[in-house]
Design a protein that fits this description.
Blueprint (H helix, E strand, L loop, with lengths): L2 E5 L4 H13 L3 E6 L19 E5 L5 H11 L3 E4 L6 H6 L2 H23 L3 H6 L1 E7 L23 H20 L3 E6 L2 E2 L8 H10 L4 E4 L5 E3 L1 E2 H14 L5 E4 L4 E3 H15 L10 E4 L14 H7 L7 H14 L1 H9 L5 H6 L5
Parallel strand pairs: 1-2, 1-4, 2-3, 4-5, 5-6, 6-11, 7-10, 8-13
Antiparallel strand pairs: 9-12
The protein binds nicotinamide-adenine-dinucleotide (NAD) and 2'deoxy-thymidine-5'-diphospho-alpha-D-glucose.
Length: 354
């Protein structure tokens, strides 16, 4: 049984990781989250009363608070997911991305290192700092080829540049100070509890409400989609069995143009929620994202061959589950779209009614 400190555990991927740890393993989780606009404790309702779940409302840029968290909980390892994660927001306002993704990662690395050097030899040896990153650090592909762990870094957006910086900091803390780190770089995730600023949940919710479906440019850009629960399982495997100092690419082998993705969402909705006109009639082509990366595609053979990971969902099964989830989780959706989820911490946590 281990105690895992997860940063960003109230976010989309972090909450999937926390839910899996609590429901499928004997481990404890300390969720360290600042609860920005994308942090939502309602995504953790199913596990938040478990005695193995702890919540710390902390900013990863606050070194003193992090030191207190390490001293209080004495974790066996760290999984670092907290970040500003949305490319469009990084274009309109990069400063929070520099702050959280770079300064926050540096602050967390220092707090982890100070804690790690103080550990007894056995605990020190088994400690891991697992940094969760993105395939966007590799830049953009043309029509051919895949990102491997050897692909040179070439980030194009403020978001991907901030994540690339954080990857380099993690690497340096291993090389210089010997901190036992492992890094993963994953492709586009989708699934339940995804904040509706990202392509798939935005399209599902807009289509359900009969609103326009804004597709950037011609919708020809390609992403490699992975169901979030498959990503969470991969992360748990890398934490357990990944080699110190190595990085692992994670991807679903599901390359789709954005237009294909939107048409798939629309046809599932036509079947589940028929309306007078097909949902695809809502598709609206809008101005392209500045510096829009054309194609991402992951070669996941390292994690498959060395650690035996394979995704369980196909894109077809995962996208259907996702659309069904948004249809049947109206309360979560309403609270996010109305902003009511922001009150959850005051209403439930700080008054002690977990
Ligand atoms: P998200 O935006 O849904 O969640 C981010 C979480 O981090 C939120 O709970 C937020 O409150 C928290 N956070 C933000 N700033 C913080 C700070 N200063 N201190 C403490 N907590 C803070 O993001 P996500 O999509 O779940 O992504 C999680 C991680 O995975 C990120 O590091 C992201 O770069 C990486 N990633 C995401 C994808 C994807 O498709 N979503 C793919 C590959 C990698
Ligand atoms: O590749 C991994 C990355 O995937 C993660 O590191 C990021 O955190 C995550 O946000 C995601 O980045 P993208 O920019 O690829 O995701 P997004 O959902 O914003 O956009 C997916 C594609 O859809 C992209 O080509 C832009 C396009 N798009 C997006 C939105 C929000 C549209 O055409 N219309 C939209 O309204």
């Amino acid at each position: 049984m281990r105690k895992i400190l997860v940063t960003g555990g109230a976010g989309f991927i972090g909450s999937a990781v926390v839910r899996q740890f609590i429901s499928e393993t004997p481990h404890s989780v300390v969720n360290v989250d600042k609860l920005t606009y994308s942090g939502n404790l309602e995504s953790l309702k199913s596990v938040s009363k478990d005695p193995r779940y702890y919540f710390e409302h902390v900013d990863i840029c606050d070194g003193e608070a992090l030191q207190r968290v390490f001293e209080t909980h004495k974790p066996d390892c760290v999984m670092h997911l907290a970040a500003e994660s949305h490319v469009d927001r990084s274009i309109s306002g990069p400063s929070e991305f520099i702050r959280t993704n770079i300064v926050g990662t540096y602050t967390l690395l220092e707090a982890s290192r100070n804690y790690w050097v103080s550990l007894a030899p056995e605990k020190k040896q088994s400690f891991r700092f697992h940094h969760i990153s993105t395939d966007e650090v590799y830049g953009s592909l043309g029509n051919e080829g895949f990102f491997t762990e050897e692909t040179p870094y070439s980030p194009n957006s403020p978001y991907s540049a901030s994540k690339a910086s954080s990857d380099h900091l993690v690497r340096a803390w291993h090389h210089t100070y010997g901190l036992p780190v492992v890094t993963t770089n994953c492709s586009n995730n989708y699934g339940p509890y995804h904040f509706p600023e990202k392509l798939i949940p935005l399209m599902i919710l807009n289509a359900m409400k009969g609103r326009p479906l804004p597709v950037y440019g011609k919708g020809e850009n390609i992403r490699d989609w992975l169901y979030v629960e498959d990503h969470a399982r991969a992360l748990r495997l890398v934490l357990d069995r990944g080699k110190i100092g190595e990085s692992y690419n994670i991807g679903g082998g599901n390359e789709k143009t954005n237009l294909e993705v939107v048409h798939t969402v629309c046809s599932i909705l036509d079947e589940l929620l028929p309306s007078d006109s097909p949902h695809a009639s809502l598709i609206t082509f809008v101005k392209d994202r500045p510096g829009h990366d054309y194609r991402y595609a992951i070669d996941a053979s390292k994690i498959e061959n060395e650690l035996g990971w394979i995704p369980l969902e196909t894109f077809e099964s995962g996208i259907r589950k996702t659309v069904e989830w948004y249809i049947s989780n109206a309360e979560w959706v309403d609270h996010v779209t109305s902003g009511e989820y922001r009150n959850w911490i005051e209403n439930h946590y700080e008054k002690g009614i977990s």
